[in-house]
Design brief:
globular; 59% helix; 519 residues; mainly alpha; two-stranded antiparallel sheet
Length: 519
């Protein structure tokens, strides 16, 4: 019998395990059958089997609380945030002021959460015992039978909340005022505000360059979608608060998509560069799932569930033509504005290795650069250079090309950093997002061949995700919207591969079940 675990050992440590994906101690399909058959099922096993159902109920509550709270916010001045972004983008010397403003805005949102009397009990046993029963009873999204089922699950855990300590800590982070990517406050103030700001500047360019008749035609064509708002209002700083809930985000993204469609046709007709007018989509709100997005489960209990989940992910990728769109980006690597595409510093070594066949080329160029421009000498200067390199968060592809060329760090002048954009073509190779066949007669934990099949597919998508991450700067910089609008959409769609990869790895590398241990 093949163990199958050796083949999957190189899964471990490749990516950061999402702490939101805690493994509940739920029996596998085979184990559960054995326990029931032998009449030894106990209440703790029953709780294990229903643990995920309770988490889903709690997540429904958290999502509803976020939406309800954000919908009620009407007294935050968003204009001050975007004005500071304008100064930073124009002068590049306003970062500290901008960071302070972002912190204040995150705190203002957090205060809205914390001021609700329910908030103090939302991350403890009282959520289960005091809040969820009423939430389920009055939730119109649940059917009568679902309400009954969920009520029984809540009762099962009413005195057993200790095991959810890590889960509660994780969910508390979703409301944090700190500068962490898992927080809804960060999503609003840092992630989506930057995209909204960029789109506002793009819309101003559209208004400036198009005739009044063309602008009126855009508005007229989407009159039914605008919900009594004008395009001018949608792309104005003061209206940003309308687009911080998931419902608002979906509405905003729909409008952006329609404007993009019009501008694509306009640019084709008038032979203009559509890159100048490309609007980017906002990221979904934390804990929310867009209508057409794939949602990762928390744990697999059977081979069938593994295949259903992986194939659901592959189907989502296929239906949105993710692979084809990535290949198109790679093929067009010479067609973008390389002044406005950035490499994030933590990927300098991997980009160096792929591009120049040397891990240190980019970092060496930076060290020489800062050594040449910074004053001082000896250890003092060396420390300044080291600090400057460390604080260099990203460089545009054009800047990297100039640095490497100026300091003659690559013997072949024809090798340029933009070739890393084309690297996605090599990563994908002949990959197609096709359904994997499930055979109930072959168990994953016992079949190295079937485990390898899953791993190989997920490896490709994981590598594509890492490739996207290389360009995903969080800094406020002038971006090539044609490149980033497409990249960000793709990034959001394949982001679940991190969680899915780890879940599949954990399931496949478990020990094959044996009844001998229980005899």
């Amino acid at each position: 019998m093949n163990n199958g675990t050796n083949n999957f050992q190189n899964f471990i440590g490749i990516s950061s395990l999402q702490k939101t994906l805690r493994n509940a101690l739920i029996p596998t399909e085979t184990t559960q059958q054995f326990i029931v058959k032998n009449g030894i099922i106990k209440e703790d096993e029953l709780r294990g089997e229903n643990r995920q159902i309770l988490k889903d109920i709690m997540d429904d509550y958290y999502k509803g609380f976020i939406s309800e709270t954000l919908s009620s916010i009407d007294d935050i001045d968003w204009t001050s945030l975007f004005e500071k972004m304008e100064i930073q983008l124009k002068n590049g010397d306003n970062k500290d002021t901008l960071i302070k403003e972002q912190a204040e805005k995150r705190k203002a949102i957090y205060k809205k959460f914390a001021d609700d009397d329910r908030f103090k009990n939302m991350f403890s046993a009282k959520l289960i015992s005091d809040i969820l029963p009423e939430f389920v009873i009055h939730n119109n999204n649940y059917s009568a039978s679902e309400k009954e089922e969920k009520t029984q699950v809540i009762k099962l855990f009413s005195r057993f909340a200790t095991s959810f300590k890590d889960y509660f800590k994780n969910r508390a982070n979703c409301f944090s005022a700190d500068d962490i990517s898992s927080s809804s406050c960060h999503r609003i103030v840092n992630d989506n505000a930057e995209i909204f700001f960029s789109n506002t500047l793009v819309y101003r360019r559209i208004v400036k360059n198009l005739s009044n008749d063309d602008i009126n035609k855009i508005s007229g064509d989407m009159k039914d979608s605008l919900k009594e708002m004008s395009l001018e209002e949608i792309y104005s700083y003061e209206k940003y608060g309308e687009f911080i809930t998931q419902e608002g985000i979906s509405f905003y993204n729909d409008i952006c998509g329609k404007v993009n469609s019009f501008m694509n046709l306009y640019c084709q007709k008038n032979k203009e560069n559509k890159n100048l007018y490309k609007l980017r989509k906002l990221h979904k709100q934390i804990l929310c799932i867009a209508d057409t997005s794939y949602e990762v489960p928390y744990k697999f209990e059977s081979d069938e569930e593994v295949y259903q989940s992986v194939n659901g992910f592959l189907d989502n990728i296929s239906s949105k033509h993710i692979v084809e769109r990535l290949r198109k980006i790679g093929d067009n690597y010479n067609g973008y504005n390389l002044d406005k595409i950035y490499i994030v510093s933590k990927f300098y070594e991997s980009v160096s290795q792929k591009t120049y066949r040397d891990w240190e080329t980019i970092n060496t160029a930076l060290e020489i650069h800062y050594n040449n421009i910074l004053p001082g000498n000896g250890k003092s200067k060396a420390d300044k250079v080291k600090k400057a390199v460390k604080n260099d968060l990203q460089k545009s592809i054009t800047e990297i090309n100039e640095l490497v060329s100026n300091y003659k760090l690559c013997p072949d002048d024809n090798i340029k950093a933009e070739t890393y954009i084309h690297e996605i073509s090599h990563i994908l190779n002949n990959f197609e997002a096709q359904e994997l066949k499930y055979n109930p007669e072959i168990h994953l934990v016992e079949s190295e061949l079937k485990a390898s099949e899953l791993k190989n597919v997920l490896d490709v998508i994981m590598n594509a995700f890492h490739w996207c991450s290389v360009f995903m700067t969080e800094e406020l910089v002038d971006k090539d919207n044609n490149f980033y609008a497409e990249l960000e959409e793709i990034y959001d769609e394949i982001y679940p591969v991190i969680s899915l990869y780890n879940l599949v790895r954990n399931y496949v590398t478990q020990k094959p079940y044996s009844t001998k241990k229980l005899n």
